[in-house]
Amino acid sequence: MPYLDDFQLMGMTREIVERLDRNRLAEQPFATRSLSFRCTAQMIEATAALGSKNVWDLVAQAFGNDHPEVAKTLQQMAKIYHSQAKFDQAEPLYKRALEIREKCFGHQNPEVASTLNNLGKLYSDQGRFEQALPIFLKSKLIVSELFGPEHPKVATRLAHLAKLYAAMGNESKAASCNERLAEIRGKSLALNAC
């Protein structure tokens, strides 16, 4: 990507936000999510060209510091850093995204559960199992209460817990999670077969 100055970058950001708002006004949630991801990727690319680490600052300028779009951007940035094993850069972004989402939506929300799950995976990937465990348990509890104990999101959390317990050497809890996971997936397959 060619070099961009701050003025060009702010112009790009304004255009991206305007396109995002037009899609919101058209009430096209899938298109909005897709555009939001593309816009975030474009902003990440543009700020990388400038050498800036704070793409979320641009989104915060457009929406406000505690807006859900800021949390979404923070989480997307954290996922990128996480996938690159830049754990020290990912962690504060996940934590800030969690803080915003809890403030905006409360503690019992799918977005909060998603951020908790990602933060738990980060800790688990770093071998910080004792920190990951309560976060995974909280995420599982939230999705279980919101969607019911048989929901695939619960199964996903159980898979993470099983892997974590195995890494911690607690084979009985890992087996218990895997058994429950198999039950949920079995019921889901049975329902889909009908």
Task: Write up this protein.
The chain has 194 residues and is mainly alpha-helical. The chain folds into two domains: 1-63, no CATH class; 64-194, Tetratricopeptide repeat domain (Serine Threonine Protein Phosphatase 5, Tetratricopeptide repeat, Alpha Horseshoe). 82% of the residues lie in helices and 0% in strands. It has helices spanning 6-25, 29-50, 55-63, 68-83, 87-105, 110-125, 129-147, 152-167, 171-193. Helix 8 packs antiparallel against helix 9. It is globular and about 50 Å long.
Short description:
With 194 residues, this protein is mainly alpha-helical. It has helices at 6-25, 29-50, 55-63, 68-83, 87-105, 110-125, 129-147, 152-167, 171-193.
Q: What secondary-structure arrangement, pairings included, does this model have?
A:
Elements: H1 6-25, H2 29-50, H3 55-63, H4 68-83, H5 87-105, H6 110-125, H7 129-147, H8 152-167, H9 171-193
Helix pairs in contact: 1-2, 3-4, 4-5, 5-6, 6-7, 7-8, 8-9
List SSEs in N-to-C order. Answer: HHHHHHHHH
Beta-strand portion reads: under 5%
For the termini, the CA-CA separation is 51 Å
Q: What class would the helix/strand composition place it in?
A: mainly alpha
Share of helix, binned: over 70%
User: Which CATH C-level class of the largest domain is it?
Assistant: Mainly Alpha
CATH architecture of the largest domain: Alpha Horseshoe
